[in-house]
Amino acid sequence: MSNDTSSETEAKSASSRDSLKNTFFTAFLLCLVCSVLVSGMAVVLKPIQVENKLLDQKKNILRAAGMLPANSDRAADGRSIDDLFAEFTVKAVDLETGEFVEGIDLDIYDPVKAAQKADLSRALSAEEDIATLRRLEKISLVYLVQGEAGIEKLVLPVRGYGLWGTLYGYLALDSDLTTITGLGFYSHKETPGLGGEVDNVAWKASWSGVKAFTEQRTPGVKLVKQRSPAGSMNADYEVDALSGATFTTRGVENLVNFWTGDLGFGRFIQLQSQEQKQQQNTLAQG
Asked: Which of helix, strand or coil describes residue 32?
């Protein structure tokens, strides 16, 4: 009797082990299949994700430049995003000298990633770092629409710290390289309804016509709670502050003035302004 009981116990034990093995094997097989499917989908979707990211970048640049209406994928004349963006030339710029740089693969170069590499960037001192970047890339990119008399539109990639994180966007200047056409952010972590109002269409539109530089060619943008009287000198440089968002307001003002200053694109803009004046004089004489 005891032998029979022992045999039954061993059989049940063996059966349990087999069942446990089967469970683990099934789970492993399921995980393997899911892993293969997820990896496969990632490979398939990556080109689409890259294409969508590029399309979003083009939209933000065009909207900052005033060439694409808000919430629209076509210009007023019906032209597509790709048609509009074809007017732009992308160039690399040495921020220290303000001169164009050749030999940069513009399709893959990322200034933000370059700023994270010691050999492609430099540390900023506390006095210099009004935009709270910590490190600044040596080479950045600019987006140009060029005409017979020089630059017609200039779009600059800008970034700086707000309340909760870094705001990334584009600042556009008109052909005088002083008047702002637009400012827009494509990524930020600001509080909805407060600092998140940087996405407000009306607030973004208020940047159009603001002067980026004073008469002494120094960055002069100010975000204020109460604007100066229309027609006054100060009014040219003022934009409405974001209500209830002191840190975001200060961050936006600082990042705009940083990137239009000597540490940002200031030297480049100065060189291009000088060249444009020469070109315009030559055309006037001709």
From this structure: helix
| H-assigned helices in 86-162 | 111-114
Q: What is the pLDDT of residues 61-117, one digit of tens each?
A: 999 999 999 888 899 899 999 999 999 999 999 999 999 999 999 999 999 999 999
What is d(CA 262, CA 152) in angstroms, rounded to the nearest whole number?
Answer: 22
> In the chain, where are the structural domains located?
81-285
Q: Give the Cα separation of 166 and 188 in Å (integer).
A: 6
Tokens 């349990």 belong to 16
Task: Specify the 3-state DSSP secondary structure of 18.
Answer: helix
Quote the CA–CA distance of 73 and 264 in Å, as a whole number: 31
Helices and strands per DSSP (H, E), number in the chain: 6, 10
HSE (side-chain half, CA atoms, 13 Å) at 68: 25
Query: Which positions ≥6 away from 248 have C-beta within 8 Å?
Result: 162, 163, 167, 190, 191, 194, 195, 198, 242
Contact by Cβ (8 Å): 241, 249: yes
